[in-house]
Design goal:
Blueprint (H helix, E strand, L loop, with lengths): L1 H16 L5 E4 L2 E3 L12 E6 L4 E6 L5 E7 L5 E8 L3 E5 L9 E5 L4 E5 L5
Antiparallel strand pairs: 1-3, 2-9, 3-4, 4-7, 5-6, 5-8, 8-9
């Protein structure tokens, strides 16, 4: 009975905390010259948190220092930051991003980019 209560508590906590970690995937296009896999997968994956104020980047290889930029539909830079390519980088955005904004990540030679789609 105690085990059943513990499992129930864990499930309840998991259900309550799930919305806190919900995120939308940003599909990235472009080429990065260091992929060493037979599967054509970008070395960077990106997600936007549901509150539109957090950006999560996952680097599958060490790419060194990269520049992360978000531009709006008018071409104005909303956010710009240099980050080290750690396995997981969490960026708190000062401004809420909007539908259609463009995320780009570059090291000066390679670039990947993706349109922010709130429906993903």
């Amino acid at each position: 009975m105690k085990t059943l209560k513990k499992v129930g508590c864990v499930l309840l906590i998991a259900m309550l905390s799930f919305p806190c970690f919900a995120k939308k995937r940003i599909s990235l296009e472009g080429n990065w010259g260091v992929t060493k896999s037979i599967i054509s997968k970008q070395p960077i994956q990106a997600w936007l948190e549901d509150n539109n104020k957090g950006l999560l980047l996952e680097f599958s290889v060490n790419l060194g220092t990269t520049e992360v930029t978000i531009t709006n539909l008018a071409g104005e830079v909303v956010y710009k930051l240099s980050v080290e390519s750690k396995p997981l980088v969490i960026i708190s955005l000062d401004k809420e991003v909007k539908e259609g904004d463009i995320l780009s990540i570059t090291d000066g030679m390679n670039i990947v980019y993706g349109k922010i789609d709130m429906n993903m």
